[in-house]
Amino acid sequence: MISMPKPLFFKATAFKKERHTAENIALELEITMKDAGINKFGAIITDNALNIKAAWKILKQKYPKNLWM
Length: 69
Hints:
With 69 residues, the chain is mostly helical. The protein has 2 helices and 2 strands, in the order ββαα. It has helices at residues 22-36, 50-62; strands at residues 2-3, 7-8. It has a two-stranded antiparallel sheet with strand order 1-2.
């Protein structure tokens, strides 16, 4: 979702052949955020799996000024 002034659904990504590793997830999230403008995100909704948590840690190191949950 992007707020413009109303919320907007931007993109859902499905992995086809890629493994669901933290690195692959972080890469796909980063691509999606860059497509819309990485500083325009207030939240991204995911589940709480260990690979997702690890992906957020990767992104937090790369973009420390953004809010990562």
